Amino acid sequence: MCASVKYNIRGPALIPRMKTKHRIYYITLFSIVLLGLIATGMFQFWPHSIESSNDWSIEKRSVRDVPVVRLPADSPIPERGDLSCRMHTCFDVYRCGFNPKNKIKVYIYSLKKYVDDFGVPVSNTISREYNELLTAISDSDYYTDDINRACLFVPSIDVLNQNTLRVKETAQALAQLSRWDRGTNHLLFNMLPGGPPDYNTALDVPRDRALLAGGGFSTWTYRQGYDVSIPVYSPLSAEVDLPEKGPGPRQYFLLSSQMALHPEYREDLDALQAKHGDSVLVLDKCTNLSEGVLSVRKRCYKHQVFDYPQVLQEATFCVVLRGARLGQAVLSDVLQAGCVPVVIADSYILPFSEVLDWKRASVVVPEEKMSDMYSILQSIPQRQIEEMQRQARWFWEAYFQSIKAIALATLQIINDRIYPYAAISYEEWNDPPTVKWSSVSNPLFLPLIPPQSQGFTAIVLTYDRVESLFRVITEVSKVPSLSKLLVVWNNQNKNPPEESLWPKIRVPLKVVKTAENKLSNRFFPYDEIETEAVLAIDDDIIMLTSDELQFGYEVWREFPDRLVGYPGRLHLWDHEMSKWKYESEWTNEVSMVLTGAAFYHKYFNYLYTYKMPGDIKNWVDAHMNCEDIAMNFLVANVTGKAVIKVTPRKKFKCPECTAIDGLSLDQTHMVERSECINKFASVFGTMPLKVVEHRADPVLYKDDFPEKLKSFPNIGSL
Amino acid sequence: MQSWRRKSLWLALSASWLLLVLLGVSPLLRLAVPPRPLPGAPQGWPRWLDTELLQSFFQPGELPEESPRPSRAPSSNGCSWEACFDTSQCRGGSLKVFVYPAAEPTSEIHRRILASIEGSRYHTSNPGEACLLLFLSLDAPAAEASPVPPQWNGGKNHLVFSLHPAPCPKTFQLGQAMVAEASPTVDTFRRGFDVALPLLPEAHPFRGGAPGKLQQHSPHPGETLLALAEERGGWRTAGTDSSTCLWDGRYEQDPGPTQTHPRGTLPNATFCLIPGRRSDALRFLQALQAGCIPVLLSPRWELPFSEVIDWTKAAIIADKRLPLQVLAALQEMPPARVLALRQQTQFLWDAYFSSVEKIVHTTLETIQDRVFGASAHPSLMWNSPPGALLALPTFSRSPRDFPFYHLQQGSHPVGRFSALIWVGAPGQLPLKLIQAVAGSQHCAQILVLWSSERPPPPKEKWPKTAVPLTVTEGHRKVSDRFFPHGTISTDAILSLDAHTSLSTSEVDFAFAVWQSFPERMVGFLTWSHFWDEAQGCWGYTAERANEFSMVLTTATFYHRYYHTLFTHYLPKALRSLAEEAPTCVDVLMNFLVASVTKLPPITMPYGKQHQEARPPLASGGSGPEPQPPDPDCINLMAAGFGHMPLVSSRLRLDPVLFKDPVSVLRKKYRSLEKP
């Protein structure tokens, strides 16, 4: 292409002397230019992959080309791990003080090759998994390349498997890291600790104060709240695709698939098989496989050959026995197969046990009770087993599946220790997605009846119906438990009447002028609201008696997490149109109450204003309608509970509106309200409203009892 | 060549030139000048060219290791649950506990703990069949040497229980015994083996205990953000602006309007800052009761019952070295979190800490969960109301079977009910009642508990019903009506009496209401309790009033779990009390449900025709039953519970169109309105 460009520079000078015989020449020139054009065009519009732009900023090198560092034989060795280390003693939290958004920043040292004085390498430079792990961290939000802002340091020295490294020299390599400082804030990942003959349960490399994310900790080596217990990654996870198998009976009740078991354990398992017959299957390695068959993917019982890990899906419970090491990669395979692991490894710290509730996904049997294992497992009810199977699979998907999942869960745990107030909750760690979706956590879960003395704040939304507003104020002020009255003046073109004109009432009266005429203003969490109970009331609701309002407040006290209102409404499924319909007729059921007169907790004002899903708030303000339906949806969705309608039905219309309240107006109104329900249901992704057949009345309502002895005699009068 | 040809060639050439320059230059430039990584852009871990060639850390050929079976002797570091506790001694449905009798002289608290365990389901008097042997070490450590208990056995399966932070008496070696002590230091605490208890004030009530102090769910707008525990035992509060000065107690700037609260008074603030010293553990419980969210700065002591209680739901445990970040986090904490934390403090206080008895039972329940393994309480039961002491894992391990967790589980109670008819005195067969109940489409089965002296009539005398009808005889005790009969297959029970009069419509409506309130009692006839100033004791009445606090179990829906709770949770003393006075059973059941839910029962309209049919209650025992309420009963119950759990309600749930001026044909439950 460059050549053609050069050539073309001389082009213009040739053209005037052009002759017919030069035609071929011209055509060649033209086609060269055209070819150049096509080539550049293709270059321009060829779909570049997203990474390619990253590729330019990341150096492309070979692992073999990394710099070599020679470690003198007498270079310093870190102290052995300090067993008394805790976050508040050995971790320098000040380094994390500057990290924004409650997220720690992690620095990764660049890769080096360490050799001793004789040029013999200290270890394999890096394993595939450790490279994956560092890539995952580097791609995550935790990563920083600024060593001065980092809170946590991850050496690129691979210590995943202790057997592939030289202990003393690796320690020397750690000690010469630029920010080592006794290992403070350094995080090492190790999955296979210890070595023959005694197989320590933690990495033997002296590492001073460094945190260890280790697979196979025992209670004696694990520093609670400091180290992180991680799984032993099973490379099969990436190789084999085992689709989730639904819960239900499986062929074998109990299966053991491990190959290198101690003879004593194998004897115990064989005894179980002998006792319980076909429901127990104890597999071993195959001895008679033909050449070329991958022996890790096969298991045998006598002469029967089984595919591994597929056979795990045929069993309800799968034994995970300790070997020389406590942590076993088979745990990951078992979880993947949705088989409930039966962990037999005394004092083993299960992976991520700081946050994961293993009781929900596994059975831990003490080594001593191995022979009772069968009866222990049989006592577990079927429903619980199915839940455990689902949970096991979910643990694998979320935290075992890939090196990336393991790395990120480890960092999240450390992050949660440093910023505990922003930590992930038990439910977020442990609940499978299906449970998270269907469960409701009521924000007002504590059964608490607020004291009557607190009273309520009445909020009257008004535009310009001053006369009617004053009547409402006068009526409401007669309610004994009223503690404050707030008028939300929604008319920007007109000022509220002078102070002297307002009715004189016994409680404080405040007027809030709004900046815009929006229906949402009714639900704004005004600072003036001091009580928990709020009465939302329209400026034309003059027909509610003082007894009715006071009783409504009493009902709210018994149901402070619900909307407690007067006029009730219902949503119905219209089978013909296949959509929701709004209903205001005399029905036997209610699912909503109008907020033209309703008590509710002031927290719902906060939710309405700041946490309303989707564009519902804007929709309401644009349509100038349905703010009450939106509130009903919101409260039902967060609490999972129905509304409470109080007192019998009465005519809820202001006398002066009846004239314009024609039939056609009513019908468009109903259509619009139905539309709101359909819109909101689609935004919420579900229909949260709950239908009930009851309403609340005073205990002695309409009972044959002297009226003057009733607490709320004046109820239900039209 | 013609000129137009030449011109067009010229044109084409120059146009292509222009295009070439426009399109070609920029990528050429990019190729020519290799881009430098932008300063500041993260450089990241390199993508190695030979990633594919890297070896796995785990060579499949490298199969370890037939290692020697590890020795099971407990290591010198101490004990763990697997190594030092022998679960083979634990058989049966619940933990069996043997308590060593007190050595002379006994303290009051010692005697009462002993009595409390003896009355509970845990107790066994035979140390041979006990799973756990409890050694109470309650007196001050200065007490004289106590001898090694007779069944000591190196401390195996022993729990040394001490309400003080001081370690157990040094007179004998602890051996393999577990230690339950107040606020153990994190360094010596053996997780999963020892039990951490709360540090209690000297005068902690033994039973019942004061409820939490929180009166409202959300903080009052004017409430102080932070109160700081003072060394002398009081609390200091300050306005939000000056709270930074509270840290370290330094007053370099103007301290602002601080306020000191004397010892013993509870702080009125959203958060309570408690330093990490062990002596401050006492303040933790104080804050918890006050509903002031504890903010613990690197506590050196183990939080109480940390094995089972998720403290992150009720407290903030932060690093003392980052005080400003903690303060900022508190100020910016979203209201939803503050709300949840506040409520959780109250729930935990009330469920596990408000009395010594609850602390003892929580300790035993924790150990029972370890023994139970897979069938222990799920974390949900420990950490949401009503708490693990009231949710027995022997009933079911699945939260869906209980009435309390339907919301969290996204489930519903089973949509049928079982009617349970108690026939106590000889008389007419409750034929009408059976027909009315069997007429309900939600009825799954009818169980008749025949406990009359006379044998039940033969099968053909009973009415033919669409649902199965079972007659069980031989039950004489009144409390047997609340026995968890294995034949009950539905979540809902409709408890009835032979004399009860109900219509199908009423049954249907009541069941619909119960489905909205599965954790409460939903009944027709009510009683109310009151405090009798003149006598200085509780009283209760069946007279109709503007409020009520109990519903009679002669016509009430409730969850079948309450049968299990009644039979297995209530102390023997209370149940035998109920045996003696039949009306007391109703009171006891209402006490039980109210102490679990902390809410009043629910009542519905009850047809006048029934009320006339039933013998007048308060008139003094003219009918065969129910007898007039025995005033002693409620006071004995209140003493047994340690407090008055009943809650009054002023409302009744009616059908939506109840007595509304609309055609009766529109009404679903019209028969409820019959005059």
In brief, what are we looking at here?
The complex is a heterodimer of chains A (about 725) and B (about 675). By secondary structure, chain A is of the alpha/beta class. Chain A has 20 helices and 25 strands.
Q: What's the total helix number of chain B?
A: 16
Residue-averaged pLDDT of chain A, rounded? 88
What is the percent of helical residues of chain B? 25-40%
Kindly provide the name of the CATH class of the domain at 417-607 and 628-641 in chain B.
Alpha Beta
Give me the side-by-side strand order of the main sheet of chain A.
17-16-15-18-23-19-24
Can you tell me the CATH architecture of the domain at 417-607 and 628-641 in chain B?
A: Alpha-Beta Complex
In total, the number of domains of chain A comes to 3
The helix-and-strand class of chain A reads alpha/beta
Spans of chain A of 5+ residues with little confidence (pLDDT < 50)? 1-16, 47-57, 654-663
Quickly give the structural class of chain B.
alpha/beta
Strand content of chain B: 5-15%
Radius of gyration of chain B: 34 Å
CATH topology of the largest domain in chain A: Spore Coat Polysaccharide Biosynthesis Protein SpsA, Chain A
How far is it from the N-terminal to the C-terminal residue of chain B, by CA? 116 Å
User: Largest sheet of chain B, described in full?
Assistant: 7 strands, mixed
Number of helices in the DSSP assignment of chain A: 20
Q: Which CATH architecture of the largest domain in chain A would you pick?
A: Alpha-Beta Complex
Overall number of strands of chain B: 22
- CATH 4th-level superfamily of the domain at 417-607 and 628-641 in chain B: Spore Coat Polysaccharide Biosynthesis Protein SpsA, Chain A
The major β-sheet of chain A equals: 7 strands, mixed
